[in-house]
Every structure is written in C-alpha cells, then in structure tokens.
Amino acid sequence: xxxxxxxxxxxxxxxxxxxxxxxxxxxxxxxxxxxxxxxxxxxxxxxxxxxxxxxxxxxxxxxxxxxxxxxxxxxxxxxxxxxxxxxxxxxxxxxxxxxxxxxxxxxxxxxxxxxxxxxxxxxxxxxxxxxxxxxxxxxxxxxxxxxxxxxxxxxxxxxxxxxxxxxxxxxxxxxxxxxxxxxxxxxxxxxxxxxxxxxxxxxxxxxxxxxxxxxxxxxxxxxxxxxxxxxxxxxxxxxxxxxxxxxxxxxxxxxxxxxxxxxxxxxxxxxxxxxxxxxxxxxxxxxxxxxxxxxxxxxxxxxxxxxxxxxxxxxxxxx
Length: 319
What we know:
Blueprint: E1 9-15, H1 28-31, E2 32-38, E3 51-53, E4 56-57, E5 62-63, H2 72-76, H3 87-109, E6 118-119, E7 131-132, E8 137-144, E9 149-152, E10 157-164, E11 178-180, H4 185-200, H5 210-227, H6 232-242, E12 254-255, H7 257-262, E13 270-271, E14 276-277, E15 282-283, H8 287-290, H9 294-318
Parallel strand pairs: 3-8, 8-10
Antiparallel strand pairs: 1-2, 4-5, 6-7, 9-10, 10-11, 12-13, 14-15
Helix pairs in contact: 3-4, 4-5, 5-9
Organism: Bradyrhizobium yuanmingense
Protein name: Peptidase M4 C-terminal domain-containing protein
C-alpha cells in the first residue's frame, strides 16, 4: 500500500515494443519510453504487493542481483536505461509492464486483481477444501533457454525464455544474436493477461471445447494489442507513418515482432489484422469451421475486435 506522503507514481524506462524497434532509425526515438506505475513500497527484485521478480537462470546456473528500484540514483533517472545486456533492466521491464497491465485491468474491473488459488492434487476429491492463497505472482525473466514464454498455472508464475536468433531471415535482429522474451512489451502483457484471467475464472484453462483455450489466447492478445495505444509517442509515430490508416500492418497491429522474426516467421509472431486469402483477396470467412489450434483460432476473434476498434477510433484521428 502507498503511504500518504509517498508519490503517486514511479517512473520507469521500458521498451515501447521490443529491442528490434531501437535498431530502426524510424522508430528508435519513440521505442525508449517512460511509463508511470502506481507507487508502492518495493523490496529488491523488485518485489511488491502484486509481483515478485526472481531472477534465477537455471540454464546458466546463475542468479542475477535483484534490482533495487528505491535506489536514489535509479529514482532520479527513471530506472535503468533500456539494455539487452543488463539483467537488472530485464527485471525492471517485466515489473513495469506487469504493473501497467494490472493497473489497466483494475481500471476496467473496478476492483483489485487477484491471482488464482493453488489447489491440492486433482485426484483428491476433497481438494477444494485445501487451497492456498497466492498473494504475489512470481516472474522469472530468464527461466528457460528456449524460444518460449508462458504462464504456469501449477507454479502460479510467469516464465520467460531466451534463445539465439536463427541464422537466416531474422529481420532487424543480428543472426545468432540473443533474443529475450522478457524484453517484449507484447509478450509480458500477453502472459500477464493469462495470469489475471486465470484468477478471474480458473476453468477457462480447461480444454472443454475448441473455443476455451482459443478465448484465453485471443483475450491475452487483445490486451497486448490495445496496450500499444497507451504509449503516446509510439502511437503518434505510427499514425504519422500510416497517414492515419490503421488498417495497414504496423507496429500497432503487430505482436512480438522481434520474437517472430528471430524464429524465422518473416514478420511478427501474430498480427491484429486478419490474413488475406490469396484466391479471393479477402479474409477466410470459413476459418472458424476448420481452424482448431488455440492461437490460430483465437486470431479470428483478435482480428474482429481490432477491426471494430480501428473502425470506431480512426474517424476521431482524422478529424
């Protein structure tokens, strides 16, 4: 909780998108963003009321010194400067974007965010009587040496991986360079949304039908996409480049561009604009009937929501 005499916000530097946007002269200046997160009493980690960042790297058998965001030097300069090589900035990044996502949910819900309880074993018929309250969600910025990041319902934690970019077609990335999923604004917001949604309704993670997991993925992608529009400088930059036409693919519609390019995806990992059928020149209206993979099926809902958002908001920018 915030003391009455404490500041209202803590200013922290982050990547508006991911490190790849800083290698492009057209987006480099707006990618180093400063965001405000609610002020709270923090321990090194950072560890606060909602989140506990624990930076253990099992693959390297390393433990990185936890960042102390209460340091006068860091308070004076809005935290560490964005850096791919500084583990303490990685810790700062996951905390800042995580708390921003939490704040946005609490504004929408009108209440506090709660994490899912930890239950006893599923094969125990009396498990519902023995559940453990989870006060803090754990975040591990360097948990995996692989091209992956995910929310673990068992551990009640976010686990972020890191890996080397493929040797060919890696976009703005250095071939063989290290890619950290914990430095992607989109990936952090996406995984945080999974954790928050699990706290709201734990059964959404049960694959009872093709739409249950697809909804989870779509919901997390929608949150990550719309969170782009909380970055004023990034929005101004991209709208200028697009001449106000948000129906074009851009950083505002992309999700995890660096990650997607690094695994040879020829672009973002996913996109808020629907794929076009080359035969008809239109989106595939029959995709809902045959697409079952959760991310791909969820992309149908993401595209519909993003299209509705653009249709509604674009006239405002054009006036």
